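Here we describe the complex-level prediction in full. Unlike the single-chain runs in Section 2.1, the three entities below were treated as one system.
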Amino acid sequence: MDVLFDIPILGFIFQFLAYLVDAIFTTNLPAQTLQLATPIVLGALCGVLNERSGIVNIGIEGMMLTAAFVGFMAAVVVSDAMPAAEAGIFGFTPALVVGVLAAIGAGMLVSLLHAWLSISVRADQIISGTVINIIALGLTGYLNRLIQPSGSAGTLDPIRPPAALLDLPVLGPVIQMFFTSGPITTSVIIFVIVLQILLFRSRWGLRTRAVGEHPRAADTVGINVIRVRYRNVILGGVFAGLAGAWLTLEFNASFQNGMTANRGFIALAAVIFGRWTPVGAFGGALLFMVWEALGIAIRSDPPPGDLGVFLSGIQATYPSLYNNFFGALPYLLTLIVLAGVVGRSIPPASVGRPYVKEGAT
Amino acid sequence: MTESPSPPVTAPALEMRAITKRYPGVVANDAIDIDVRPGEIHALLGENGAGKSTLMNILYGLATPDSGEILLDGAEVRIGGPSDAIARGISMVHQHFMLVPVMSVADNILLGAETMANPIFLDRKEAHRRIVELGTRFGFQIDPDVPVGSLSVGWQQRVEILKALYRQARILVLDEPTAVLTPQETKEIFVVLRRLADEGHSIIFISHKLHEVLEIADRITVIRRGKVVGTRAPAETNEDDLAALMVGRNVQLVVDRGESHPAGATLVVSDLKVADDRGQESVNGVSFEVRAGEILGVAGVAGNGQEELVEALTGLRKPTGGTVSMGGRDVTGAGPRALQQQGMSFVPGDRHRFGLVLGFSLADNLVLTQYDEPPYVKGLLRDEKAIAAWAKRAIAEYDIRTPSANVNASTLSGGNQQKAIVAREFSRELTVLILDQPTRGLDVGSIEFIHRQVVAKRDEGAAILLVSAELDEVLELADRVAVMYRGEIVAVVDGPTAEREDVGLLMAAGRRAIPPVASDAVAEPGPTATGLS
Amino acid sequence: MTSLRRIWALAAIPVVSILLALLVGSLLISASSLATSPSLNPLLPLIAYESLLQGATGLSFIDVTGGAITFNPSIKPDQAARALTSTVAAASPLVLTGLAVGVGFKAGLFNIGGTGQVLVGGFAAALVGGTVAGQPAPVAVTMAILAGALGGAAYGFIPGFLKAFTGAHEVVSTIMLNSLAAFVIVGLVNDIFKITGPSFARSADVGNAAMPILFGRNGNLGILISLILVVLVYVLIYRTPLGFEIRTVGANPSAARYAGMSPRRLVVLTMSLCGMFAGLAGAFEILSLGYYPAVFGTSIGFSGITVALLGRAHPVGILLAAILLGAMQAGAPSMQITAKVPIEIIDVIQGLILLFLAAESVIRHALRSRTERVTPGEIGTVSRSYGDSTT
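The structure predicted for the assembly as a whole is:
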């Protein structure tokens, strides 16, 4: 091994790979990745549900942001009104329960607006999504400034499985990855699997896919295209809402303007990367976010050897660039993947096209 | 309606009485009466735009009539929508198949009439069994797991029919079912239809092809301009009679093309290979030449590589092998611009996709391929005056009916849109003219006009390549006919003397022998029709 | 008469959208009075809009003393001149970012990357400006502005190239580029281009490359250049063969290919052009400020979307829309001081205007009038290309 590590420059790559393997199996890098990927996955599920039924949704970002704000405010209000005596499982207090539900509700409500604009009004779907993003940013910023919420409702707690379970061979790292985070993060894997199965094996899934591919064909066999699309877009809002709840009730305990930081758009890229399947989008989200998790790991625990010395040297000379590099990586990676993969993946055929029934003009 | 006592044998399964439907500016259906008996194949004959589709949309619940009534087995019904129609045993096979290409045969058939294992999940196994059983009963076996997009058009149509049977349809409407089929495939589908009728199904067969209607129908109802102009039994009528009823005047369907006087070869194609969007070679080493002053027709069932051939010849698609030369100069792989400068004009098959910018004015569309050439450009700027002057001239010369040159192209009728394209492309200096489906979906008047222009261009010495899915059009115009089958030209025959059946067989099987009966073959993923859905 | 009717057909929906947005905005403003006082103040919107108007134009219509409102139109010439200069100065970068989005629409492209292009253009102008700070002003200013234009164009070129040659849809790629630019430039300013002296991290002074003031306190050269560009863009889009190509690609990319145009070339060219406009806007902002601060937050890139949509992607419409938004921006501080309404209400109103524009068919129906579509038709190509991202 050391021989490999000593090769000039190339040795860095081997050292890095060794560090990565080490990090995956011995640290909480996988769990950290899953956690950071959670809003991306949830946003991507929203995207899959929308686009599979033929609706482009670039407003995921705005839906998340609105949900994050509403969920947070609702939780703070409830927590002020009745401070929780003690927290239940996952650290759920009444305030947090209300907060999460309010976030979901907000996500659904904004989705309803998107559905109405793009399905009923037949506004351009990309414009509709843009409008949602702009309004969400403006309105949450305005209300946040106006209300200036003080205090917080706390956050949901991670699960703490017994140490014995984590030490199990093979199973240990898996449990470490999936069952050491908060409830929203933990539930993500369930959503992904359930949606994947439903999309390809249930009546709902069959109809959804048909409506996204060839709405007129679905219409002629008596399927209500408009209703299927409404239902899917609003259901998508549930997941965007959960992503928002994750931002202010699980990962952070506060709201900042524009805190979604384009996660909604990374989610869209994950949808494309995952070829419009929940499992694929999940993989894409992990791929995008593992680098940010790795950046956190490297900063707190730099790799040993030459690579570590090299990185510390850069960090000392260019601290700001060094930190921002890891922050920028998901966006850079998204861009690269988008440029490299999109050419080969085929979206649902009627995405972005409003449906007009025959004879109705 | 199922509760009603079983009707007498002679009672019609379906009766539509005095159906009237008005759209702004037109009466699409004007008090139409029609009835269909159990076990009967009833043909609905009429030109494009005569009102056949509107009538069937009303029957299928896609449109609401302004007045009139629909009776099933003698009882009046209101059909609120497709699901309502399906529930009452009415199914429709649309001209453009309503199939999802990326989904399997089984999924397409199940859609909307799902067989469920439980309230959430589909029972694919049971569905599979029923589909195979139905197919066997009507004489064709099909693999339910094959994606529909990989089936040939003929087999896609069988999927559509299976879809109807799976829903236990008693009344089956087929809208122009033979438009995309070869004569042989048509015969096969007729066998299936007859079998369905024998089992007691009622079939409404919409068509504008006289010989087919005479062959398959028990009764023929002719519609013209929204009105029923007559109902005939095949035995008591003939093609001339039906044509007169349908068109309302004695049209000269065949343009007098005269003799051609071809000179040297202008467009020479040798061993051309072209791949389709999915990278499959769909033109497989094609060689031919078109001489100045002749029309070479390319016949073939849609999806046998004609589209890719035309795109490669006009520079829209890069060939993967072979050469093309124009007037002795090698133009292999040249782009549209270079070819246009060499004297090629092209009337594309899809006028809304390629030929026009619907949101632009007619005038702008009339210079779409010359916008940067004098006299339409002066210095750095467009010369609006010169463009307007040309538009005025084109409107007069090519009989484009429009309120002005400044209206959007989208407001023109299909015939006038096509005339605008013809005006633009025919008025350039050209040596080679490529026509792809030049009269698809047009009214008789526009077809005549365009056919005359084509013959005139030939007589001026242009080398013309005419690609058309309408065999009749190719036979009427072409001096020589090349038949395309699975990406190859399988024969070139003399146009004026070509036999319809002979060419049809070449189109269907690629040779002049009896093809094997396809009924016992599992659907072959043959040359398929993308973009049909 | 017919021309009046034509103007109404074009302007009805934008005007109604603006009025509706102000109406809904007024509800939010009255609700905001609850945050500062125990009771709802129904007059607050009136006061807020009055101070907004006054701050933007110097015009005043009402006096508010206690709870009473008196109609008293007045104008103070010197205040009006100052206010109008501010409005025009705020509008000029919005004209440019509006063009950065609007010209893209004409080619069927949705450039959401204005924000990043503004940053890169501004940063390039700051770097070059800092280098040529000692040169004579005309030389220094020209070079710094050119650097901004080139920087923005280069940053617009990237998504254009990706779209044309890999199929990456510009809606997602430009947004990723916005984030990337923000991260990288902050790092560069902090670590490499920071000068010692100031209490916060910023680049060197641009010295003689600072924007020349032509009139008033902040009536700078950028205003003039923006106006010239509006005219040039109009001529380019509607009177030249290249503009015809751009519009054809936007309306029907297949027909453009058929007609012998090169959609790829046009996509790259148009995105670069869009980036150039946004880069110029960034350059004007930075050269007015005199340096590039590490923390440089600006919403002009984002507002360009509103400007372009409100202006129907037409140069003249964009000019008018930019003046409206510029007025809101110029008047907002005085509104915040007088009426205690957070300045962010401006963003909300902009968003609401867009919302009502998006629902134009509903408004058209309500007006029962034959008004023209506001949404640029080419936006349909943007959405379709999202579905077609395979080719």
